[in-house]
Every structure is written in C-alpha cells, then in structure tokens.
C-alpha cells in the first residue's frame, strides 16, 4: 500500500442540517442538480448557460477539451456588461439598487442598475476616446469605490481585458504587472481611505509608470482629495471624461472565448502568474454559483461580500456574479475596525444585509475582538453566511454560527481559487447537512477526486485534491507562459488539474481542506497538516488564531512550531495548550514550542505566510517580505523567538 499522503487526525462530529424554515424558501433542497451534473456535466453547464446568461448568438460546441486547454460555448457570442446591466434595465428593473456603497468615513451612495448602466456606457466611450480597442489590456489600481466596478464593466463592454491590481500593492508590484500585461491605459485614483486616513495612489502609480513604456494614458478618479500631479496629455480626470461622454454605447457581442480579464496571483515563490479568464464559461459559472451557493432571491436579499475587487473574490462575487443575477449588494470601502471594532456589524444592521460572505482570517480577528462587538447590533436580517480563502477552523465556524448567525444561518464554506474562477466545493445551503469546518462536497457539474501520491483513488482519509474534468470558469492559461501553465497545474498527476491543496475525506464522504501541501509537516514520519494542529489550538477557548509550521529538527525530521494569538481577556500557559492539542488530536501533534504573539505575518489578502514563520523558527534570514501586509510583525516575532525558551 502507498504511504499515506497526509494523516487524518481530527474528528469533528457536529452536524447542522438545513432548518425547515430555511428549506421552505430555498432554491434547492434535494439532489436533482447533483444528479443532473453527474449524468453529463457538459449538458448540465449548457443548461445553466442558457438559463442564466443572455446570448447574442448561440454556441455550436459546449466544450472543446484538449488537455490542458478547455474552450466553452464555442461559436457563442455575448457581452458580459450587457448581461450585468442592460438586460435588467430592459426588463424594467432599472430602478433596482445594484450597490449600496459605504465609504469608510461614513458617507453612502446608492447606485441603481440604470445609473450603473449610464456610467459604464459613458466610461466605455471615454476609454474608446483614449484609444482603447477590443483586445487591449487596461490596468485598474483603485480603492474600493464604485468606479472600480464601473471600470471593469466598461472594459468588458468594449472587449478590452482588465487587469486589476489591489490598491495595497506597491508601485513595484504594479509596474511588474503592467509590464507583463503590456497595458495601454491605467485607471487609478488620487487616493483612498484606510483606517481613517487617505492613502495616496496616484503618486505610487506615477512611480510605477516611470518604468512602463506601454502605458499611454492615465485616468484618475477623485476620491482622497490629496494633491496629485497631472501630466498634460497623458493624465485625465475621470469626472471630466464622464462629463464629456455620451451614455449611448451599445454593448458589442464578444466571442465566448474572448479574454475578459487577467488577474495576477503571487503564489509563494516566483514571479506573479497572469491568470487568464474568458467570457461565456466564466460568466455562466459565477452566475450559477452566486445564485445557488448563496441561495439568492434577488428581490429580497441584500448581499455583502467583504473582499476587495483586487482579488478574484471581488471579481466573481462583488462584480460579475451578483450583477449578472440582478442582485442588490453592499460595497464597503474600508477596514473592519474604523471607527471601531463593530463597523461590519453596524453596516449589516444599517443595510439589513441578509447574505454575508467573508474570510476566516476576518472571523478569527472578530473572535479576538470579543463577543460584545456583534452583540451591540441587530443582526436579525442575516439568513446565510459564507466563508472563503482558507480552511475555516471548526471553532471559528462555531463562533461565526453562534455570534453572527445567532444560530439561525447556514454557513457555506466555499473552496475555490483565482485559477478556478468560481466556487468549486461548497454546500448548497438548503440541501446539505453542514459539519463545522468542512466545505462538504464538490458542486454539481464539478469533477473532483482525492488521490494519493501514486494518483490512486482515496475513499477515506488524507490525500491531494484534484479536478478531473474541465469546468466553465477554469483558467485558460497563464498569460504569455504556456509552459508554466502545464508545469504548475497539470504535471503532478497525469490528465488532471492539481490545485496544490491537501484534503481529507471522512466516513460520510465530506471534504475537509487541509491547506497547501507545501505546508504539510513531516514529524517522525507522520505527515501532519498545519490546518489540523491550528484547528486544535483554536478550539481552546483562550485562542483566537494560530499558525503552525514545521521546523527542521535533528530527532524528528520536522518539529511543530506554533504561533498563537490569544483572545482579548484570556490567558493560558504554553503547556496547557500543548496538552490541549494532545487531547484533541494526539500526542504526535503536540507543538514542540508555542510562541505567543499579538499578530501574524499575512499576505495582503489575509493568508498566513508560513514560509516566513519557518524562516523565523529555523533562525534564518528572511527572504522577500514585500508581499506582507505588515512587515513589522516578523521582526517582532524574531525578537520573541529569540527570547522564548522551547519545551521538550
Ligand atoms: O489553499 C486554498 C485556499 O486558497 C487558495 C486559493 O487562493 P486564491 O487564489 O487567493 O483564492 C482565494 C479566493 C478563492 C486555495 O488553493 N482556499 C480558498 N478557499 C478555501 C481555501 N482553503 C480551504 N477552504 C476554503 N474554503
């Protein structure tokens, strides 16, 4: 028998079936979609494409699959911005709210579908007047303001691909991404609000475009009112362009495989990859998943996804999915702790949010801030909660369920990636019995199999998450780098996509994500997932957040090192926590050392940087820390590591 890919240590038995009240209004309560997807995934997606998307021309071929390249709905033509805007207005829903936008300082803007269509049309005409043509690339470097969605949709309207770069990235990251994409136009802002202050964007953009020969024009949205230099002939104020533009800009039909956007993922090593997403398949899957995973009732729900448009979650579940489905969304500009730690809960109360989608890193931060913060607010409008970005520890799930959902809301834990474009593994909340911490099952129409090192099927226990058939929103490649595309995703297991994630299957076939396989530790020959040890630590009432890494160890190969953030008002000793882990998942998983810390090094999208923690644990000099959200955290950890003696 092959060696076990990853050990399966943690057992979680709590179950939450959908309530009768939730089922009563739910879109799916049985297995019919799964049955249909299993029978023939291509026909299943074809039905979704014709029901959820409006096509200018029907497709001839549902899917052409030349491994590792898929094309969907070939011969079909459509326009994404038409699907997100015009068709709702034409159906008489122009007055419906598309976005309630909340600025960090407290102002709000209400934007209807009609207003959004007008603004997008004007900006699409403006882009044309700046020389942007179908097939060009446009870079977007904006704060979380409605103009970010307008810019994306305007590009889609005229067939230019956008490449959004998160506003928190440095000028160097921006310049690298612009150069790789060879973008013609950059859309930015003077500045944006963050934690009560204006952070400058235009000065960063100016620095970036000093080294980007492809940029011909720059558009600047006024938001921060901070002083900026405008270069005559090159730089244009957004409001001047809009004032001068006509709102008549018919949406041009695009081929289904027209490039819709590039989005760069940093990964843990190497230069960022420009992930390519196209039009018809992408829109089909994001519309389908947004509708069914969030059980959307567009006439009643107020939906809020807290991601930034700079990440794929913002692309698929703030802009394209919700707008394609005619939903009403909240968009928030700032941080969760301005002016106080209850900002999110006050926004939910203010707009009567019914569907709330956020990340485990945020949930654990809320746990750290304490139960009293959500308790200050009426959260009774909520009916469904979502999680994305990392494995959600069972105790964080329980806290979310109890303190935000007040015990009444199902939680959809959605697994996917920038590369998958849309959600792949998730409960359907009216049909699936939930287990805290499990993303449950692959969605209908998705082919997923857990395999071991030799690519043999795993029925139960730990293994590697692979995708066995093409899906409509899958990446179409890495921009200008087909070899890397093949190597990064299709070479580890023949004929399949390997996502890089480890997972396990329990007795009931539920999927439990165990993090990136690069993070699996090898302790005395046991392959232990960092996620399981972290979840065991977080299940102690004193712990808000934990990060675990394997450090080289002369005796055991690797030794488990844990970094722990305590909840406000709690105290605990290192040995208490080590014993707690031993009790939860076994003595083998007991951390060799535990460091208490007020913070952890995270990427700007909130993922823990385990590579850096390994460097700290092994006393190495740190490599590249430029993608860190807060570089000071690491030096503080190094100082503490030098001071803290470790137990044996
Ligand atoms: O490791 C998985 C983790 O995030 C990775 C994808 O990151 P990114 O491309 O930045 O996209 C994040 C938003 C979709 C995955 O390979 N991940 C994402 N969602 C989950 C998750 N891990 C466990 N559970 C999830 N729900």
TrEMBL record:
One of its GO terms (cellular component) is cytosol. PROSITE patterns: AMP_BINDING (PS00455). The keyword ATP-binding applies. Residues 532-607 form the AMP-binding enzyme C-terminal domain. Keywords: ATP-binding, Ligase, Nucleotide-binding. This is acetate--CoA ligase. The lineage of its organism: unclassified sequences, metagenomes, ecological metagenomes. Pfam families: ACAS_N, AMP-binding, AMP-binding_C. Residues 32-84 form the Acetyl-coenzyme A synthetase N-terminal domain. Belongs to the ATP-dependent AMP-binding enzyme family. InterPro entries: Ac_CoA_lig (IPR011904), ACAS_N (IPR032387), AMP-bd_C (IPR025110), AMP-bd_C_sf (IPR045851), AMP-binding_CS (IPR020845), AMP-dep_synth/lig_dom (IPR000873), ANL_N_sf (IPR042099). Signal peptide: none annotated. It is an enzyme of class 6 (ligase). SUPFAM superfamilies: Acetyl-CoA synthetase-like. NCBIfam families: Ac_CoA_lig_AcsA, PRK00174.1. Its EC number is 6.2.1.1. Gene3D superfamilies: 3.30.300.30, N-terminal domain of ligase-like. One of its GO terms (biological process) is acetyl-CoA biosynthetic process from acetate. It comes from freshwater metagenome. One of its GO terms (molecular function) is acetate-CoA ligase activity. The keyword 4Fe-4S does not apply.
